[in-house]
Amino acid sequence: MRTSIVFMLLFSVSVFAEYKDSFIVEVSDRKIKVTSPLKKVSFVSIIVKNETFDKIISEIRSEDKVLKRFVLKPEGQEVVQIDYSKVKKLFYVPVAPPFEAVELRFEQKPYEVPEKK
């Protein structure tokens, strides 16, 4: 019993450590939720999770160009590494099905972008 509690605590700490320097973008049918890294870093990971049953064609963009284009499978995820020192702003853009672009901002509380009506 005691060893299982210790294991669960260590596992939760290691999972938190993995995500603390990453953006986590959760795409659902009606909104996109973003969890930001606790501090600004030069190389950032962006973990994009598709919580829908649809394939989503996605882009990670700067203000002026596409940095990465990928396809999210239904209920799948993609991890993208970006050198943030070379860009001023980052955006996650679902291309198909279309949705509003979401700016990825450091040091923010989790925020959501609802679909446009």
Q: In words, what does this structure look like?
A:
The chain is an alpha+beta fold and 117 residues long. It has one domain (21-114): Immunoglobulin-like, CATH 2.60.40.420. The protein is built from one helix and nine strands, in the order αβββββββββ. The strands form two sheets. It has a five-stranded mixed sheet, with no helix packed on it. Strand 7 (90-96) and strand 8 (102-104) form a beta hairpin. It is globular. The chain starts with a helix and ends with a strand. The model is unreliable at 6-18 (pLDDT under 50).
Global geometry: globular
CATH architecture: Sandwich
- Alpha carbon gyration radius: 15 Å
**CATH homologous superfamily heading:** Cupredoxins -  blue copper proteins
What fraction of the residues are assigned to beta strands by DSSP?
over 45%
Question: Helicity, in percent?
Answer: 10-25%
Low-confidence sequence ranges = 6-18
Spatial ordering of strands, largest sheet: 6-3-1-2-9
Q: Based on DSSP secondary structure assignment, what is the total number of beta strands? A: 9
> What would the average pLDDT be, to the nearest integer?
84
* Assembly context of the chains: single chain
- Main sheet overview: 5 strands, mixed
What is the structure about, briefly put?
Helices cover 15% and strands 45% of the residues.
List the keywords.
alpha+beta, 1 helix, 9 strands, five-stranded mixed β-sheet, Immunoglobulin-like, single chain, 45% strand, four-stranded antiparallel β-sheet, 117 residues
